[in-house]
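Worked example 2:
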Amino acid sequence: MSNSFNSSFFEKVAREDFEQALRKGFWRSVLGWFNKSTNQLLAFDEVRKYLPVRGQYDVGVRQIPIEKIVGSVGRYNDFDRAFLPRHRHIRSRWVSIDLAKLKEIELPPIEVYKIGEVYFVKDGNHRVSVAREKGQKFIDAYITEIVTDIPIDENTDINWLVRMHEKSEFYQQTRLHELRPEANIELTLPGMYPKLLEHIQVHRWYMGEKRGSEVTLEEAVASWYDEVYSPLVKVIHELGICKEFPGRTSADLYLWIIEHLYYLREEFRQEIKLEDAARSFAEGHSPNPVRKLINLFRKLTRLVAEGLEEASDLELGILPEEMMLDVDVEETRRDKSANQPDKEESDLTD
């Protein structure tokens, strides 16, 4: 009877523990949304894909700090960055692990990959979640270490890794650091370094068309940096546009402004200066609240002016073109000539 009572009591406690952890996970996700901070576990396969790996080896069983576990091989959608549960469908497994803890049943070590200073769970995600919720600081783990030159810690996010990978690929392909040692192109969003490579390839094609012969990639890279990239970056600095986009770099703005320049040239079918394109982009896309207020005031002023002009035209009897289709042109001319003085009188009175 006593064992049955204890088992029922422990099961109730374990279910309540899960519900509490699920609520904490929900409110943590809400807070992360408001703070615009990452709350997701890192996906091991995504991280591994963007890392230059030099090898891996078995370390054996060690105690590892739970706070250094930042990712998972297959359960990164089931738990958040603090390993709080995100979905109710994992309750059964979670409760069974908690129940074992409450009954002081010894559980086997988890299995993890170590990259840099952090760990990714291969097997044992629920054990990590329960242990962390119970305030446990360390956990036994069988470790496989992956050796890489890129520093990884608990503050690493996947976008940073993608950018580092793309940046490495960009410099390897272009050899920009060899051709222009002073070059320092920093981009803040994934997918932007490949766009720079596209720009260089387009520039290379135009160079070849103009020259009438093939252009090497090294020549195109040097020419692009000197004649396209650097002049626009100089304009960006001179106009102080970086201040309008906090957290972004001059390289970010180069990409956005050069694409805006292409758009303006297509739209207006004429040559547009770099300075004008840069000003136009800043005025239209700056997140600066003061700039937004100024743009709103300009739009309202333009709308008011257009409204007054339209009202003035109507008062003066100036009809829009589509409203003049039924007017008899000859009759209008006769009316005008009837009201005009004779040419001689007109000459005398001038």
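Residues 2-35 form the longest helix (34 residues). The first strand starts at residue 42 and ends at 43.
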